[in-house]
Structure formats: C-alpha cells, structure tokens
Amino acid sequence: MNVVKGVRLKNFRCHGEFDLDCNRPTTLIIGENGSGKTSVLEAIYLALRGKSFKGVDKEILKRDEGFYRAEVELEDAQKIIIRFDGNKKEFEIDSKKSARLPKKNRYPVVLFEPDDIYLVSSSPSRRRDYFDELFKQINDNYGLVLGKYNKALRQRNDLLKREIVGKDDLFSWNIMCANYGAELIKWRVRNLDKINEKMTAVYRDIANNQDNCRIEYLGEVVSESEYLQKLEANFERDRILGHTSFGVHRDDYEFIFNDKKADGSASRGENRSMILSLKFIEAQILEKEVGKKPVVLLDDIFSELDEMRQKHLVNNFKNYQMIITSTTVPSEMRVDKEL
Q1: Model pTM?
Q2: Are residues 166 and 267 in the same domain?
Q3: Which of 31, 74, 255, 334 has its CA 20 to 30 A from that of 182?
Q4: b/e map of 12-49 (b: 16 or more CB within 10 Å)?
Q5: What is the C-alpha R_g of the chain?
Q6: Which residues form the domain of 36?
Q7: What is the rounded average pLDDT of the residues 261-270?
Q8: Is residue 257 part of a domain?
Q9: What is the secondary structure of 265-299 as a DSSP string?
Q10: Helix 167-207 × helix 224-233 angle, to 10°
Q11: How many CB atoms lie within 10 A of CB 188?
Q12: Mean pLDDT of 233-248
C-alpha cells in the first residue's frame, strides 16, 4: 500500500500551483534542472519528517508571495497540511494544529540525493550530519539527546570565548556534555554495528565479487567519567582556542574497502556500490526498528549511476513506495509527471 497518495503545493519554491497523484508504487517525475522536481520531494519529506532537507521556510516561500501551503495526502485519506505565513509555520492533521509535526505522525524516509554518492570522500561534518539524520529516525531519543548536547556545547563555547574564564565556570556544562556525549557514542556504535552486520553481504550482491567493506567510527569510545576527564584536561587548550576541542561534535565515520581506507583506494564504481549498499541497509533497518516500510525518495540519482546500479536500485527498493525525480526517463519506467 502506498503511504503517500498525493501532493498539492501552493507558492512552494518555484511552484505557484502543483498537483501530483501517487497512484502506483513507483512515481516518476521528469523535468529539466531548475524545474522544481526536488521541491516536490522536499514537501513530502517535510510532511513525513517535520522539517526540510534543503532550507528554512523563508527560502521555501515563493518569491514575492506572502505564504506557502503544502498538502500531502496519506493512506487512509489522512492529510498533513503545512502552512507558512512568512513568519511562523504550522502543521494541521485531522483539524488539529501544532507548531511541530507530532512524533506519532512522523514516518520513516530514505532520501537519496546526488551528493550522497560522494559521501565516502566528503567532509567529516557532512558524514556526521548524514548519520545523525539516520539515527534520529531509528530512535527519537537520539535526536533529543543530540539537541541537548548541542545546546550544552554552545553554552560551553560561549564561556570559552570570554576574556576571563575559569574551570569552575565550565563545570556544569562539562557534566552535561559528558553525559549527553557518552550517550550519543553508545547509540552511534550500536547503530553502526547493525549496518556493518549487513554491509559486505549487500555490497557483494551488487558488485558480484568477494570484496569486503565496512564503516568505522572515528571517535574515542569513552565512558561518561572518561569524557568528563577529557574535557577538564583540555581546559587550557580550549580556553586558548575559544571552543571545545574534544567531543562527539568532532567525530567522523570512515568507509573501509578491503581493509583499506576507501577514499583513495576504492574506485569510483566501488564507492558508489558502497553507498548503494548503505541505502539498502538504511531501508531495512528503518523498517525493522520503526515497524514501518519507509518511503523512498530518489532525487535525480539515475544520472549518477550506470545501468547495472540503476537496476539494483530499483530491484532493492521494489517493495517500498518510491518517488523518483529525473531529467531523463529510465528504461521500462512510465512518466507520472512532467515539469
């Protein structure tokens, strides 16, 4: 059964008016670059996850317009309506309005963007953001703890920027950073283990060879007390730098291919097969942990993949609802909307 049944947009990005019916398990939207294809996926993501993957509301609002409205019809005729009046945003579900999408109405999504193909060689912050978003979907508490950690970290960094600051001034923020940071480390390691359990097998299915791959967590796996000791030991250094030099906000993830760092040793095709593997595993884990089949949003990704990997992409996601954007029509696919 399709989760998303239809999309209606008003003043959303470049769309003055837009309607899309998602009557089949796979919906294909065709259009040139800049025609607003990604904006349709953005609206769906906003309705299912409660936030955009691209920008803030004022950027979403069509130029010279005073409001935007996005309506996404779901299974069982339920509708999620998002309105933005230029200042504040509200969600409406079953005539109930709220400033945020309620947790009970959030739905898992696998989003595949062109930039994801380059995740192996991208920046540490890009990889952190990628895995943070995935782990938030797996467990809402991860997102809550991450938010608390970032708030405590900002307070600690603000104090470090003062002309005069002592160790005692940081004590309470050290305690909070250590508590939340150690909890995030546990979640990251646990979730990465789940991914690595499947990584090589899924990769071999795509590449049809006996190569192996995994993802390593590049961060110190420490207890809460050890985390606190690190923060306190780094006080003088942090005071000079004006920011916190140790913590989960600086950690990274590294792709390993045949026991070597993939960035530099794996070919372009091998890197892309690893990312495809990660995406397939992401869908499997979300379905198992959340108990719902995620909606798969593929944003102009076919232009980045050869025919063999395109087929794997479609075959591995065939049991999920897919909404795809592309500049060209992939073989054996029917166009549902042309922009």
Answers
A1: 0.94
A2: yes
A3: 255
A4: bbebeebebebeeebbbbbbeeebbbbbbbbbbbbbbb
A5: 22
A6: 4-107+295-338
A7: 95
A8: yes
A9: HS-HHHHHHHHHHHHHHHHHHHHHHHSSPPEEEEE
A10: 120
A11: 21
A12: 97
